[in-house]
Amino acid sequence: MNLPSSYPSFKENLFDVKMMRQCFRKILTLSFFSFTILCSLSVQASVREYWIAAEKVTWNYAPSNKNLIHPDDSLDVWGKTLNYTKYRYIGYSDGSYSKPLPQPEWMGILGPQLRAAVGDTLKVHFLNKTDRPVSMHPHGLKYDKDNEGADGGKGGSIAPGKSFTYTWVVDEDAGPGPKDLSSVVWLYHSHVMAEDETNLGLIGTIVVTLANKIRSTANPTPRDVDHEFTALFMIFNEENDEESGMKHTINGRIFGNLSGYETIIGKRVRWHLVALGNETDNHTVHWHGQTVLNQGRRTDVIEILPASMISVDMTPRSAGDWLFHCHVDDHMIAGMATRWQVMQAKK
Ligand SMILES: [Cu+2]
User: Among 231, 248, 250, 132, which Cα is nearest to 187's?
Assistant: First the structure.
């Protein structure tokens, strides 16, 4: 065949193809490294440290000493007293355990809110300041036997005055699943005699957010949410099963004495709902004034049972001072109710 003299030979052609392949490989390699560097810059896995002590406190189930849901009714029938000895997890700023971390009023009896992004590791330095062996057992996170905080292992039972550092890995299986929101809630609680210690008040929650949805490495809250609230629905048994000692609480408060659930019309609000307790702790969480989305289902009542952990979203539409309560009749009558406030947006 007569080819024009300028037409490349077969050898030259092969050389060009090789060069192109090499170039292509180099571009791919460079892109891969750039992508990896970008990812590590934007989503940096962190080791998050917390200092938490278990402490004996006096807890008042109704600090106002009033029935704020039905002001004409007295609280007298609900137990011999409103004050009881409880055990709580208290967060501190560092290992001196001298500066307690502030927490919002609405958290009530709950221990500090632990937070992480998927990929992080939690190091929880725990000090038992109480008079009985207790522990910290997390739901959902990855741990080895020593860090389970239950059922043997080094962290399974921490004696009074002793400390232990729990290491919990926030792997993909601890984060939101395909049908979850951008963050999920997990309980943590003491688990030496779990039923006794949760009734004493040793309970808190962990919120895990998708790594690509956190506000920043320093602030791993989900950026598609403006306000996150947590509510523990639980009946505390204070007087050996006597009905009058059954404290029907939201975060350890009764009859409207839990305050601080405040938001603004149009804000994106996420509610993390948890429960613990016994067979009577079957609760139907109900908001007045607003609906929520639960995995795409619209409702204004969410069913929870002991150790349930459910997160739902809402965008408040009506300003007001709205009831937030359990819809089980006996529980409503016994004070498992408070209010949440929706304010007008400032113009
Ligand atoms: Cu209930």
Answer: 231
* Distance from the alpha carbon of residue 284 to the mean position of ligand 1, in angstroms: 6
Ranges of each domain in the chain: 47-343
Q: With bands split at pLDDT 50, 70 and 90, how would you rate the model's confidence at 39?
A: very low
Burial of 19 (0-12, 13-18, 19+ CB in 10 A): exposed
CA of 235 to the centre of ligand 1 (A): 8
Find the 65 Cα to ligand 1 centroid distance in Å.
22
Output the CA 254–ligand 1 centroid distance in Å: 12
CA of 189 to the centre of ligand 1 (A): 20
- Residue owning tokens 């408060």: 253
Cα(338) to centroid(ligand 1), Å: 13
| pTM for this prediction | 0.87
pLDDT for res 28: 52
Choosing among 2.30.110.10, 3.40.50.300, 2.60.40.420, 3.40.50.40, the CATH entry for 47-343 is 2.60.40.420
- Residue 99, classed as helix, strand or coil, is coil
What pLDDT, in 10s, does the model give residues 74-120?
887 666 789 999 999 999 999 999 999 999 999 999 999 999 999 99
